[in-house]
C-alpha cells in the first residue's frame, strides 16, 4: 500500500470502464464467474455480515425465465449478454455471524430486530458487495451492465423462492462492444458534493 | 479490457487490502481526497443518480464534533485516523437528473414518490458509490476503515443539518499499521452463496 496502482489498472476499473449494453459474441467461462466471487467476498461489510447472494443466469432456459421479469428497455441487451447476474441479499444474514464474526455474539444484535432495521442493514451491506462485484468483474477483464429496472417480487419468486433472499439489482456480464458506447454522462465535481472540514 | 489487471493491483484493491483500526502518524493531503472523489463519481449508478455526498472530517475541531456521535468502540480509532469520511446520500437526488441524465425526464420517475421508494433508491445507489469510494481510496494507496456504528440522526443534524442529505456510513482514511492487523475473518466460498443456472 501507500502508492497508487498503475495507470492501466485505474483505467480498467474506473477511468475507462463504462456501462455496456451491446455485447460481443464471446462467452464467459464459469471459472471467471467463480473468480469474481472470490474477490467480491473479500471487500468489507459491517461485522463481516456478507449478506450478498448471487445467481448467474447463463443458460438459454434460465434466460427465458428472467427476460419477462425485466422492464422492456432491459430485455434485448440482457438476452444478448453472455451472463446476467442477479445480486440479492439474505434477510437472515445474521444466522451466519457465529461463523463469520466469531469473537462477538453479533447474531444477537440482529435476530428479532424489526424488518426495517434488517432490510436497511442487508441492503446497505449487500449493495457494498454488489459494487465490489462490479469492480471485481472489471478487474478481471469483463465489462458490466448493472440494471435496476425489473420486477423484484417476480425475480424473488422465480430465482429465490422459498429462501429469505431478496433481489437487489442485476448486472449483465461479458465483453462489450466499444463501438456502441456513447459519451459518458456528466458527473459531479468535488466541490458540488464534498467538503473537507 | 478483456484481461485481468496485474497481480499487484488486485492485491492492493482486494486480495491484500484490509480494514484498519490503527494508523501511522502520516497525514493525508487534501489533493488525495479530491482524487478519491474524481474516481468515485465515475462508477455506475441507476440512471446516473449519483446520490452520494461526502464530508471529510479532518480538522481537530471537526473531529471533536464527530467523536461523541460514534459508538464507543469506534472513537479511539477515529480520533487517531488522519481523516474520517462521512458518506451520505441526498434524498433529493432527482433534482439533479435533468443535468445528469438529460436524454429522459428521469426526475419525473422519482419526484413525489413515497419516502420508502426514495430511501431505498438513494440508499442503494449511494451505497454503490460508497463501495467505489473504498476501492478508489485503496487504489490510490490509502488504507480504509469503514464503520456503521454511530448516531445517524446526530450526524445528520451536526454535518448535514438543513439539507436533504442523510448519513449512510463512515470510513476512516490514512495509512494503516500492518503490525496491528489480525488474521482476516472467514469468508463464504462460491458454492455457499452463488449458483450458475
TrEMBL record, chains A, B:
Protein EC: 1.-.-.-
Keyword Cytoplasm annotated: no
Alphabetized UniProt keyword annotations: Flavoprotein, FMN, NAD, NADP, Oxidoreductase
Nitroreductase domain span: 18-161
A molecular function (GO) term: oxidoreductase activity
Enzyme class: oxidoreductase
Matches recorded under InterPro entries: Nitroreductase, Nitroreductase-like, Nitroreductase_HadB/RutE, RutE-like
Cross-referenced SUPFAM superfamilies: FMN-dependent nitroreductase-like
UniProt keyword Nucleotidyltransferase, yes or no: no
Required cofactor(s): FMN
PANTHER family: MALONIC SEMIALDEHYDE REDUCTASE RUTE-RELATED
Protein name: Putative NADH dehydrogenase/NAD(P)H nitroreductase Rvan_1173
Native organism: Rhodomicrobium vannielii (strain ATCC 17100 / DSM 162 / LMG 4299 / NCIMB 10020 / ATH 3.1.1)
Amino acid at each position: 500500500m501507500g502508492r497508487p496502482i498503475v495507470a492501466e489498472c485505474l483505467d480498467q476499473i474506473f477511468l475507462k470502464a463504462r456501462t455496456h449494453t451491446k455485447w460481443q459474441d464471446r462467452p464467459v467461462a464459469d471459472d471467471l464467474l467463480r473468480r469474481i466471487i472470490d474477490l467480491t467476498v473479500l471487500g468489507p461489510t459491517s461485522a463481516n455480515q456478507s449478506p450478498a447472494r448471487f445467481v448467474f443466469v447463463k443458460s438459454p432456459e434460465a434466460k427465458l425465465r428472467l427476460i419477462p421479469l425485466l422492464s422492456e428497455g432491459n430485455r434485448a441487451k440482457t438476452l444478448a449478454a453472455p451472463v446476467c447476474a442477479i445480486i440479492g441479499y439474505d434477510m437472515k444474514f445474521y444466522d451466519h455471524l457465529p461463523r463469520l464474526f466469531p469473537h462477538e455474539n453479533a447474531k444477537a444484535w440482529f435476530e428479532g430486530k424489526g424488518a426495517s432495521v434488517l432490510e436497511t442493514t442487508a441492503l446497505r451491506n449487500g449493495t457494498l458487495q454488489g459494487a465490489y462485484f462490479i469492480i471485481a468483474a472489471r478487474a478481471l477483464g469483463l465489462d458490466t451492465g448493472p440494471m435496476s429496472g425489473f420486477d423484484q417480487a417476480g425475480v424473488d419468486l422465480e430465482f429465490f423462492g422459498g429462501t429469505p433472499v431478496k433481489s437487489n439489482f442485476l448486472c449483465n456480464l461479458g465483453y462489450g462492444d466499444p463501438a456502441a458506447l456513447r459519451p459518458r454522462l456528466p458527473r459531479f465535481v468535488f466541490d458540488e458534493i464534498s467538503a473537507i472540514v
